[in-house]
Predict the structure of Orphan protein.
Amino acid sequence: MRLGRKGWNNVIIFSMLIMIFFLNGWHKQLFSNIDAPSMQPVLPVQSFVLTLEFVDQKIERIGTSWRTTALQNDVSLRWLPSEPQLGELINRWQSIELININESVVFNPRAPLYVATFELAGESLPWIYLLYKDNAHYYLLEKSSQRVLKLDLATAKQLFPSFDFSQSESN
């Protein structure tokens, strides 16, 4: 079988496309380690927080300042923050980066320890974060994407200041 000039041009074009396809895929596989856990911001970069709601209180932006409101009338708040502390808490959530866990983590998805719900400017749905604990570690599950982030006790206490961690440590 003899190919003409047009046939050989087609063979060369298709072989180059196949070679580019394989080299591009090989390049991405060779230089990226998928199994390695990576640091990821908890909230989207450059997000603008309007409200942060815990089980017992709601923190909302009022102009350039923050205020907190108790959500349960019959329960006194464990954490009564000042306005600068509210701003620090929001900044901590916006700036913190945690380790993204790729492997499956065993915890009871129906029994979160605590919940944080964010309303962000420009987002139609709230961002919901559930705090879980296994034997040794705490985990933060982002509800919409099912992304699991690992955090230590000190970081968990910083992000959830109104939660009583002494109860979870005894379990």
Remarks:
- Residues 7 and 17 are 16 Å apart (CA to CA).
